[in-house]
Task: inverse folding
């Protein structure tokens, strides 16, 4: 099963993320094991293998892209990884978006700001709840309402998703 997952991941993974293929394959393997444990008597269809491999690849690519974006803290500017394919105009636009996100985040209520900040940092809603000491439902409500407020604020600044 691992070899099949590795081949699927190799097809789906772009060249710039090729160094992460083993990690993606491992994540997909873990998802398959969990799925088999949840449904021990049911056979998983072959298409499920493809679905798991592709979703694991997409999740990892999103995580990698999020790491390459402009940091939200001005004081960490020197730590940023600059994409050589990014033009100066792209960098300026990204800095404008980051500044707008910081301004909109600071306008949120404290609990929503904390929940949304953890969400934007890549934490799941249940993880955010555990970190902040909230139950799952409260964390979910604060993340989703905070994201809605953030979208509204960014839209008012002319930034669309």
Result:
């Amino acid at each position: 099963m691992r070899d099949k997952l590795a081949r699927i991941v190799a097809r789906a993974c772009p060249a710039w993320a090729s160094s992460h293929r083993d990690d993606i394959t491992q994540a997909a393997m873990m998802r398959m094991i969990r799925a088999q444990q949840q449904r021990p008597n049911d056979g998983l269809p072959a298409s499920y293998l493809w679905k798991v491999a592709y979703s694991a690849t997409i999740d990892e690519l999103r995580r990698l892209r999020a790491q390459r974006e402009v940091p939200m803290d001005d004081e960490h500017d020197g730590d940023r990884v600059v994409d050589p394919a990014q033009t100066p105009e792209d960098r300026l636009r990204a800095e404008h978006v980051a500044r707008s996100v910081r301004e909109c985040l600071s306008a949120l209520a404290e609990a929503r700001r904390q929940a949304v900040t953890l969400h934007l940092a890549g934490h799941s809603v249940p993880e955010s709840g555990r970190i902040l000491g909230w139950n799952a439902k409260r964390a979910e409500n604060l993340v989703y309402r905070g994201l809605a407020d953030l979208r509204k604020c960014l839209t008012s600044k002319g930034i669309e998703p």
